[in-house]
């Protein structure tokens, strides 16, 4: 079993804002997908890193393996090394997250992260079996976690990943990257990455709604039931920190409603999960989302 990589010595300087770019989730032609029954052929899937491991999650560009020593390896071309920095920050806050043992870049693209295994099931799996009281109890447990995250501000006020690099914005089908950004106006310009074909009046109206007075706080960015591990009605883990970083204080809230969940009542527990709602920012972002590149 490896040891944790040495900590970084301070955050790197923030360069001028970079143009946002889209990181495609797949490059396989649609015709090939349809021919294969809507599934990716084996050659397009991430491959296991260890023999005799058990695959517990696999999709295009990533794989999660449970090893025989009861540890987990998460790897693939869509895995970012920045995730280990997010896990370290979360661990310092005493949040229920995996412990990182070692990590390295893959030869071509992506990374491999070796971490501890968190026992339990995803909240997505057990949600239909829970009573309303049990659901509310889980929501209140999550509230304590979110409050801890929001208590940690960006030490220099910049919008960035936990490794000091570009922020990652997960939308419907793609992940967009940009920055780091030294101020919220620059971050808003990144968020306003909408097609040039959008009517000017709509573009200017949306931009005028984005405020520049928010605190910059530690954010997970993908709070959905599939990323919450529970056991005996207790949250034992919060996983998938790949888009975490320092974002405007409203970001966790608006992204909560954007991340997909098959159970509509999940969103009704918003007031139990978030101690501070952001209704204006939510409406602004919902309006903007209609025009964003997906």
List the helices and strands and how they pair.
Blueprint: E1 21-23, H1 30-35, E2 54-59, E3 62-66, E4 71-76, H2 82-92, E5 100-105, E6 111-116, E7 121-122, H3 123-126, H4 132-150, E8 160-161, E9 167-170, E10 175-178, H5 184-191, H6 200-209, E11 216-219, E12 228-231, E13 234-238, E14 245-248, H7 251-258, H8 270-273, H9 279-289
Antiparallel strand pairs: 1-10, 2-3, 3-4, 4-6, 5-6, 7-12, 8-14, 9-10, 11-14, 12-13
- The strand order across the widest sheet is 2-3-4-6-5
Q: How is the biggest beta sheet arranged?
A: 5 strands, antiparallel
Counting DSSP H or I runs of 4 or more residues, the number of helices is 9
What is the approximate shape? globular
State the end-to-end CA separation. Answer: 40 Å
Q: Which radius of gyration do the C-alpha atoms yield?
A: 19 Å
The helix/strand order is EHEEEHEEEHHEEEHHEEEEHHH
Structural class given helices, strands, pairing? Answer: alpha+beta
CATH class of the largest domain: Alpha Beta
The name of the CATH architecture of the largest domain is Alpha-Beta Complex
- What is the average of the pLDDT values? 84
Model regions low in confidence, pLDDT < 50 over at least 5 residues = 1-46
Helical fraction: 25-40%
Beta-strand portion reads 15-25%
At the fourth level of CATH, the homologous superfamily of the largest domain is Aminoglycoside phosphotransferase (APH), C-terminal lobe
Instruction: Give a count of the beta strands, DSSP E runs of length 2 or more.
Output: 14
CATH topology of the largest domain: Aminoglycoside 3'-phosphotransferase, Chain: A, domain 2
């Amino acid at each position: 079993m490896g040891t944790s990589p040495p900590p970084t010595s301070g955050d790197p300087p923030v360069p001028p804002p970079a143009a946002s770019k889209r990181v495609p989730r797949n490059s396989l032609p649609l015709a090939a997908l349809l021919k294969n029954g809507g599934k990716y052929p084996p050659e397009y899937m991430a491959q296991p890193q260890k023999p005799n491991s058990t695959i517990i999650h696999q999709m295009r560009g990533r794989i999660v393996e449970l090893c025989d020593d009861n540890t987990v390896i998460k790897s693939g071309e869509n895995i970012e090394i920045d995730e280990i920095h997010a896990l370290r920050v979360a661990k310092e806050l005493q949040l229920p997250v995996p412990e990182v043992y070692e990590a390295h870049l893959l030869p071509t693209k992506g990374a491999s992260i070796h971490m501890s295994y968190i026992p339990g099931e995803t909240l997505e799996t057990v949600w239909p079996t829970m009573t309303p009281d049990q659901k509310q109890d889980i929501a209140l447990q999550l509230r304590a976690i979110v409050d801890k995250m929001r208590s940690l501000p960006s030490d220099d006020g910049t919008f960035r990943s936990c490794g000091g690099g570009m922020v990652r914005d997960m939308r419907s089908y793609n992940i967009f990257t940009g920055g780091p950004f030294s101020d919220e106006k620059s971050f808003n310009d990144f968020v306003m990455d909408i097609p040039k074909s959008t009517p000017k009046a709509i573009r200017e109206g949306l931009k005028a709604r984005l405020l520049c007075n928010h605190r910059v706080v530690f954010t997970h960015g993908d709070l959905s039931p599939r990323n919450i591990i529970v056991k005996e009605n207790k949250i034992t883990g919060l996983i998938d920190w790949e888009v975490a970083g320092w974002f405007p204080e409203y970001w966790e809230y608006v992204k909560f409603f954007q991340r997909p969940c098959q159970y509509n009542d999940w969103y009704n527990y918003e007031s139990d999960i978030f101690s501070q709602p952001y209704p204006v920012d939510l409406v602004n972002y919902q309006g903007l989302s209609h025009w964003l590149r997906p």
